[in-house]
Specification:
The complex is a heterodimer of chains A (200) and B (198). Chain A is an all-alpha fold and 200 residues long. Chain A has eight helices and no strands. Chain A has one domain. With 198 residues, chain B is an all-alpha fold. In chain B, helix 3 packs across helix 7, helix 5 packs antiparallel against helix 6 and helix 5 packs antiparallel against helix 8. The chains are: A mainly alpha (200), B mainly alpha (198).
Chain lengths: 200, 198
């Protein structure tokens, strides 16, 4: 058994007692930073909801738009993450994430056909913004940059599943159900705006 | 007892709180939001009445009203969160049950925009009153997610029940349900006025 001297024991006790709690951000899966980042997207509604809305929007506008968003959205997220991670201005923008949730959900709720350029542009803008904010969080919490790759992988899978499913529906009621889901996302975004202003 | 043992016991009895990774209140916030709309009868009957009325009106109202309601309701909730309290809010909620229940009972068929405006106006009251009642310690965003989902499911329940109006017996049953909602609204109005007077 290792024996510590009196001074070492007192020092150890002091360190343990005065240690401050750690305030980590990413959840720890135990499988490393890639999976931490992957899980982080799926358990963060402020990022997940606008991404689901964009995937629904792409699906509603058909396979061609869906294929475009499948690649532009994760690419924009990755670019934003890299930029946010490198710049790291230590800002959070809950109002911006809430606003993009309202816009993306509202576009789905209207159910109006949109041209490819507009949907892909929205995916680049919203994906870049959300990815940038995620990158800033990674930098501020000194997380492993590999977490960004995990988030991008999760986003790619999410868009594949949701967009593919929505693009394949033909029944009118199913498309209406997608619009209703969009209205729910927009409604949640409006509440998020309120909470962001109120500070809770 | 040796000094090392005493020191170890002291450390075990005095651990620092570790707050890393776990963000408290998530499940509690979501479940609170999910439970809140179904815990208030005034909200429940009005939401079901929206679904019943939509089913009576048929397409496109049957899907336009449930799309309109959550977004307008959230506008009311946002106003509440910004500190804008609507006057006579309990009266407005009671009136929503009366008007929507009566519309179902009478099988009222106004133009689509009139129905949307009626539903939208009352949605603001419901959002303002209920959407901001966050329990202490709960997460606001997840509470809102649960609240919106539960409200939408109440609409779906109303639409599902309203499908029965295709059959003669079901039609009578739906109209009776509307009458019940309107009567409940009268009760809520009485409580609101009596509460306001007291």
């Amino acid at each position: 058994m290792i024996r510590f001297g009196r001074g070492a024991r007192i020092a150890l006790a002091t360190i343990l007692i005065v240690a401050r709690p750690a305030h980590g951000h990413l959840m720890t899966t135990g499988f490393g930073p890639f999976y931490d980042g992957l899980t982080h997207l799926l358990v963060s509604p402020e990022y997940l909801l606008p991404m689901i809305a964009l995937a629904l929007l792409a699906g509603l506008n058909g396979p061609r738009v869906g294929r475009a968003v499948l690649f532009t959205l994760p690419a924009a997220w990755l670019a934003g993450s890299v930029l946010g991670f490198l710049v790291a201005p230590h800002v959070t923008m809950p109002l911006a994430t809430a606003a993009v949730t309202v816009v993306a959900g509202g576009l789905v709720a209207t159910g109006k056909p949109m041209p490819l350029v507009l949907v892909a542009g929205a995916a680049i803008a919203i994906g870049g913004l959300a990815g940038g904010l995620n990158g800033i969080e990674l930098a501020v919490t000194r997380s492993n940059p590999l977490a960004a790759a995990g988030a991008v992988a999760a986003l790619f899978v999410l868009v594949s599943l949701v967009t593919g499913q929505v693009a394949s529906v033909r029944a009118a009621w199913a498309r209406i159900a997608v619009q209703v889901a969009g209205s729910w996302i927009a409604a949640i975004g409006l509440f998020m705006l309120g909470w962001a202003v109120r500070g809770r | 007892m040796r000094a090392t043992t005493r020191l170890s016991l002291l450390l075990l009895a005095w651990p620092a709180t570790v707050l890393a990774h776990a963000r408290g209140g998530e499940a509690f916030g979501f479940l609170s939001g999910l439970r809140h709309p179904v815990s208030g009868l005034d909200h429940v009957v009005a939401m079901i009445a929206v679904g019943l009325w939509g089913a009576q009106l048929g397409a496109p109202a049957v899907w336009l009203l449930p799309i309109t309601f959550p977004m307008v309701m959230a506008c009311g909730g946002m106003l509440g969160l910004l500190g804008v309290a609507l006057p006579g809010i309990e009266v407005g909620i009671a009136a929503s049950a009366i008007v929507l229940g009566f519309a179902v009972f009478r099988e009222a068929r106004p133009s689509l925009w009139v129905a949307a405006v009626v539903v939208g106006v009352f949605a603001i009251f419901h959002g303002n009153a209920h959407g901001t009642e966050l329990p202490p310690g709960a997460d606001g965003i997840l509470y809102s997610i649960g609240f919106v989902i539960a409200t939408g499911l109440l609409h779906a329940t109303g639409i599902g029940l309203g499908v029965a109006h295709r059959w003669p017996v079901g039609r009578t049953a739906v109209r009776c349900a509307g009458a019940g909602v309107a009567l409940a609204g009268v009760l809520f109005l009485w409580q609101a006025v009596a509460g306001g007077a007291a």
